[in-house]
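Re: beginner question about structure tokens

> Can someone show what the tokenized structure looks like for a real chain? I only ever see the sequence side.

Sure, here's an example I had lying around. Input first:
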Amino acid sequence: MKNKIKDLKLLSMLDLDARLALSQIGKNIRMSQQLVSHKIKSYTDDGLVLGFYSLIDYAKFGFLNFRVLFKINYQSKEKFIELIKNISKTGNVTEITECGGSYDLLTVFSNRNPSQFNKQFKALIGQNPQLKNYDITTSVVSHHYPRAYLLGDVKEEDIIIGGDREILTIDELDKNILFYLNENSKMSSVSIARDLEVNPKTVILRIKNMKKADIIKGFKPLLNVQKIDFSVNKILLKYHHLSVEREQELQTFCKLNQNIIELNKLIGDWDLELTVETKTKEEFRNIYISIRERFEDIIEDSESLQVFKTYKKKFLPEDYFIKNI
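And the corresponding structure tokens:
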């Protein structure tokens, strides 16, 4: 990136709202609309932006998220990529992330209930025996924070997905619009309207109403920040002697830390999963040690994982759109 400050400002704005009009982005960072468009395309071509996803509250559709950490015996790169493709074809898989450490792969399954998850999960294991070693957690709620570290901003936004939600029913048009936004949150309303043969104003209004109903919580780029020399790590925590007050203090610490971009509250083998993006390994280590020292009274066990690449990230499973589930 030739003009790093301008690029970081652009990435920061995309991170806050990937559907923001190019003219609005250009106005805010003093860049022409044409140059903004060119830069976003170059980010995609260079592998910095791997796609665009929508923060859709899956709990409002009656889904649960099961997060599976796999330990995989050594495989060639070709066989590993083939395995990723096989997992990705599973209609209820919404996220696939390659890791390093005690686990090699994080895969998120979105299902209506544990029984449905168990059937589809066991079928996947049967087809891919190299996935036989794993730990499973269920996501209670997830918090998604802006990448404040890009510009040294103060974190203000806290997007909450999941939890105890009233299940909603939407009509076919809203469902079709969500299908496109689930695939690519940056797809224009004009393009969506053309495919659905409706007026673009109708699509704009429907998206606005789904945001008001908290079905859609935001739009983000899937960033491969390693391309701009940042590293990505996950921290897994297991609690003991937990109190509501201390848990809230830990969550507040995470919310205020500029480098923590996602927090998943879990039930299962682990109780908390954090995603951390830092400029140096030392910076990450300082955050990791700080958490362990400040909250040693409630942390029984911890683990850190290096994240290499996220191959897929969505918030509704493909099965929702192609099956009556």
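Each token stands for a local structural state, so reading them left to right follows the chain. The longest strand covers residues 299-313.
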